[in-house]
Write a structure and sequence with these properties.
Layout lengths: L2 H15 L8 E6 L3 H9 L3 E6 L2 E6 L1 H9 L3 E6 L2 H9 L11 H14 L4 E8 L5 E7 L11 E5 L8 H16 L4 H9 L1 E5 L4 H10 L50 H13 L3 E7 L3 E4 L12 H15 L2 E4 H4 L6 H9 L2 E7 L10 H18 L20 H15 L5 H27 L4 H8 L4 H17 L6 H9 L1
Parallel strand pairs: 7-8, 7-9, 9-12, 10-11
Antiparallel strand pairs: 1-3, 1-4, 2-3, 5-6, 6-8, 10-12
């Protein structure tokens, strides 16, 4: 796109910022454009929701559509009145198939907290602009305690109109709670993780969208210029700015007067700082994508990209979504994933669910089931892949259980076994050293109780040679100072290995 066209679009963006926004918006296909052109349009604050080969889809009002059409873009209206679309999707609900609204989320979370009190607790992590509670459900074997365990955060409804984003975190919570007593794998995840679920980050916007049948994206902040709403997913403080967002309160991508200007984004920030998460998923719609940082600009170095790519590819096999760097969709400043990874060193992902904003309600099971599976995989790998990231709760590796520590050694070696970057290799080796010492500690404790189970498992893992060397050193030291501590047969096997 040349400079003249960019300037024209920028001027158009300012034009529609001052236009009346009482009229319904439309979903429009911008035809015969490259991905670079589509990304440029999005970077100017237009609400581009999907970019494909040769076209993009965007939410536009009449002024925005006229501005783009006037600059030579070919537009095709897909949904003329998005408010009516919301009303139609509401009409697909019945007693069997229905989307969670805020009141139902609040009730169900409260019921779960009472019924499964031994493995979960409910906490309000803050209040919205309109004084609604932002509820968070913690699921763990000791929910009242802050244990040194890998922690995961799952969030829905940053954007009001994206109703499916509430369904998946609620489905994950239900799966963990209702299957804990009978499913050994679910029990292991709950017992060894701290899982936080915030189904509705934006209560006010969700209530407004659902009760008023409005195609609304932002929160319900009354802005200084008389407009309403801030885009919460442009309000986070890591690389907050104008790219992919807007300075105008009229815009759907208005980023607020400053970073963390909104109580909803502040609530997530405080929770992240307190809990020191290892991994996260923020659910949105639509496009069937798995996105990961950095997203604020093209070609930004992500030192942990190998881990992000590996985990995204694994989750994509479960839900069939396309994994990609966020900026490959289009650059956007101030988004959640960049903050969580850039500031808090969290393996942070965005899932763009479904093929439309709000599918008919009878499709809810079809998009929740595969995404629950992907979330469980993330919860599992939060205790292995995340251990390779320097600075992410460094004391955590010293508290891993044997299964996670052994898997972490295997997983990290699989990702970084051929690492050529000297700095990265040295950092990974430091982490492997800590985990190997933890493995050795747990194995020696096992041997002191006359059990060789962990020892045999350690010997069978080809990537655990460092941990084995620490075990041998400890055993031979103890045997030298207290002969007979471990038995002749074991000591001989250690010496001859």
């Amino acid at each position: 796109m040349n400079m003249r066209m960019a300037a024209a679009l920028c001027g158009a963006a300012l034009l529609f910022a001052t236009a009346s926004h009482s009229a319904p918006k439309s979903l429009v296909k911008i035809q015969k454009i490259s991905k670079i052109q589509a990304a440029k349009i999005a970077s100017l604050g237009y609400d581009v929701v999907s970019i494909k080969d040769g076209y993009a889809e965007a939410v536009l009002d009449k002024a925005e559509a006229a501005a783009l059409s006037g600059k030579g873009y070919s537009l095709k209206t897909l949904i003329a009145d998005l408010d009516k679309y919301v009303e139609q999707m509401k009409g697909t609900q019945n007693k069997t198939d229905a989307y969670y609204n805020y009141a139902k989320v609040e009730t169900v979370l409260g019921d779960w907290a009472k019924k499964y009190s031994e493995i979960c607790r409910l906490e309000s992590i803050g209040k919205s602009c309109e004084n609604k509670d932002i509820w968070a459900l913690k699921i763990s074997d000791n929910p009242q305690k802050n244990e040194q365990e890998p922690a995961v955060l799952l969030m829905g409804a940053h954007h009001s109109r994206e109703w499916p984003s509430i369904e998946v975190p609620m489905a994950v919570a239900e799966k963990l709670l209702t299957n804990y007593s009978e499913n050994p794998e679910i029990r292991r995840l709950v017992d060894t993780r701290e899982i936080w679920i915030v189904p509705v980050v934006n209560p006010d916007g969700v209530i407004y969208s659902m009760e008023k049948s409005k195609f609304w994206r932002k929160n319900r902040r009354k802005n200084a210029d008389g407009t309403f709403g801030v885009d919460l997913n442009r309000n986070y403080g890591y690389q907050w700015g104008d790219v992919g967002s807007s300075n105008s309160g009229y815009s759907d991508t208005y980023h607020g007067p400053h970073a963390f200007s909104e109580p909803e984004s502040i609530a997530i920030k405080k929770l992240a700082e307190r809990e020191k998460f290892q991994a996260s998923i923020s659910y949105h719609t639509y496009s069937e994508l798995i996105l990961y940082p950095f997203g604020y600009a093209h070609n930004v170095n992500n030192p942990d990209s190998k881990i992000f790519v590996k985990l995204a590819e694994e989750m994509s096999k479960m839900n069939g979504y396309r994994p990609q760097n966020s900026a490959q969709l289009y650059p956007a400043m101030g988004d959640l994933d960049d903050y969580l990874y850039g500031s808090e060193k969290v393996l942070s992902f965005t899932f763009e669910l479904c093929k439309s904003f709000i599918p008919p309600a009878n499709q809810i099971p079809s998009f929740t089931a595969p995404n629950v599976e992907a979330a469980l995989h993330l919860i599992d790998k939060s205790g292995t892949y995340a251990m390779a990231i320097p600075g992410n709760n460094p004391g955590l590796a010293n508290n891993l259980d044997f299964d996670d520590a052994l898997t972490a050694v295997s997983d990290i070696n699989a990702i970084f076994g051929n690492e050529r970057n000297i700095v990265m290799r040295n950092e990974v080796l430091k982490q492997l050293d800590v985990i190997s010492k933890r493995l050795a500690q747990l194995t020696v404790e096992d041997l002191k109780h006359q059990s060789t189970e962990k020892w045999e498992r350690l010997r069978s893992e080809q990537t655990a040679s460092l941990a084995l060397s620490y075990v041998r050193t400890r055993l031979l030291f103890d045997e030298g100072h207290n002969p007979g501590s471990y038995g002749v047969e074991l000591i001989n096997s250690v010496k001859n290995k």
